Amino acid sequence: MLDLLIVGGGPAGLATAIHAARAGLDVAVAEPRPTPVDKACGEGLMPGAVRALAELGIAPPGHPLRGIRYLDAEDDARQHAEAGFRRGPGLGVRRTDLHAALARRAAELGVPVHPVKVDPVTVRQDTGSVTAAGFTARYLAAADGLHSPVRRHLGLDLPDPRPSRYGLRRHFAIAPWTDHVEVHWSGRAEAYVTPLGPELLGVAILTGERAPFDVQLAGFPSLAGRLPAHASSAVRGAGPLRQRVRGRVAGRVLLVGDAAGYIDALTGEGISLAVAGAAQLVRCIRGDRPLDYEQAWRRASRRHRLLTDTLVRLRAHPRLTHLIVPTAVRLPSLFTGLVNGLA
């Protein structure tokens, strides 16, 4: 019998597997898709995520990020606020490169990845084990993404009365003009510009309006004017982004990564939270205290959840949205402190 079966071999699932293997647990991953898998992602790692990955022996290739820059997309004067990272750089890294690096590290540690799709209806548990798709383990970690089928099957989803938000991402073959992640704020959306390599930029747009990428990008004329006419990748999309969860533990099944609940991609902390959540999950099941995981997850994500939720609530009110960049400009110490609190 396995100690831990992980459903989902994306970054969260592989980070959990790596933590488990390093802790001496017998772990396996069920993932039907070949690695690497490309998905919609801002592709910017905050310094905390870079350090956490390094501690696991993972150093993906990418472009160093020195900070965050907020710009008002509707201000002709292009006022902006800039906050540098105080504890080392972040990293702009292609999602596929990150996924491949995690997969290599898991393989080095001897973690088997089975090309099996786990139907959530096959998940059964008793007082001592969980079975799913022919596997038996003491615990199961559901790392099956934003719209987790395992979470839904267990009845852990909660309705969300707020308007939905969506993300779109595309790449452009152009030399980055900045070593910061640029966040361009308009009245209806944000555009995130992330340097990924010597001749590669990622542009992700977060919005409450469903429209093609080019239509969304037209709402940022200054940014659009700096980009090549033709993109170098297809559009990837995700959403609705916000996923409310009743709890992260159901008996011997624990949720990790985006499956554990998601507010928004606005602060770019998905990978950091996935790695932190993976560490807490492994610590709790290693001590046979799965119920401790809920509180541990909340503690690890509290700061992120508070700031992200506050910004999303401001985003819902256009008049308040227009105050975000001017406020950051007027209060640079506060802006720098908030950025580094997350970083």
TrEMBL record:
**Gene Ontology MF terms:** FAD binding
Q: Where is the FAD-binding domain?
A: 3-163
Pfam families, per the entry: FAD_binding_3
SUPFAM superfamilies attached here?
FAD/NAD(P)-binding domain
Gene3D superfamilies assigned to the protein according to its UniProt record, in alphabetical order: FAD/NAD(P)-binding domain
The source's superkingdom equals Bacteria
Q: What is this protein called?
A: NAD(P)/FAD-dependent oxidoreductase
Origin species, per record, is: Streptomyces guryensis
